[in-house]
Amino acid sequence: MKNAKQITITDQGAEYLRKGQMWMYANNIHKLPDGLENGEVVNIITNANEYLGTGFVSLLSHITVKILAKDNDINIDNEFFYQLLEKSCSKRKEMMKENFNNCRLVFGEADGLPGLVIDRYNDILVSQISSFGMEKTKDVIYQMILEILNDDKQEITTIYERNDINIRKKEGLPLYKKPYLGNKTKTIINENGIYLNVDVENGQKTGYFLDQKDNRLLLRGMAKGQRILDCFCHTGGFGLNGKFGGASKVVCVDLSPVAINKAKENARLNKLDIDFVVADVFEYLDRCQKGEFDIIILDPPAFAKARKDVNKAYNGYKDINKRAMKLLDKGSYLISCSCSRYLEDELFKKMLSEAALAANVSFEIVSITYQSKDHPRSREIIESEYLKFYILKII
What we know:
By secondary structure, the protein is of the alpha/beta class. The chain contains ten helices and 20 strands.
């Protein structure tokens, strides 16, 4: 972008950007200009004065620049943000159809808007901002997305900010959660025919795990007549879909009494007969009998929240999968998930193979899917591909 201050990067940093990377790390910064303000829009250049990108600078984070564009003729102005937001919303309306009322409208870097997540739950928008530059731009962003949705006859009464994520500390931003516009914090969404209570103030993430909606439909399609165990059930998304799909028995297990109570509320809301258990999943699996269930779902919280946690997380995933595999007869199914981006696909497959060896079973992979399509995966941003959903058949 013309007239923007320039950050000079190393040759190694330039190589990363040429390969498609959209972040520039502090260890690849050669020179910062004088008078740089946190969150300012800057150009990235090489020592040879070659332009490679424009983005928000963060003076405190290890990710020094989150790139917005790689075209020096583009102005990072209101029109730039409006076009990206309009494209993002139009894409969701087309792909989500009846679920447009409950979907992720903006998924950060994957939509060209680094540091910005916006989820929709009926007339409530929930925003989560994780970059200093986007924080400075948010007033304009909110005004624009309201205009775009209102022009499309989509009623929005509330914008709620869930800025209580630890990554904001690395940007020098405060942690908080509060309404920005309106005061509504609870609603009931309709996800593929199932009604679900959503509390955007106190629920996980932005109120609910929207990223598994497509995978929950996969379970629904294989549930008829099956006995299903939903481990780490949270508010019951998989268990509800299993029973809705005709399962003969569904048991939902979670360590959190609060989560189980909310799952019970959702079951009552949908008039579905489900058994709920408050228990440590590892201990509960040890109490189950072999052949008691036809499908076991493992959807644990992220065992690896940082790269340094990968080895410990690997062993945790291996342990829980081994315990579940031991309970399944031939012809039964294990659905195994990981929401940790640090436990990459090949490592996850390796873990499953080792768990099967330890459990003395064999399996075939029926399918591998990822997060719901309203959470697009970007080739340039490996962090946008984080959720893995494996359906295994014991053979």
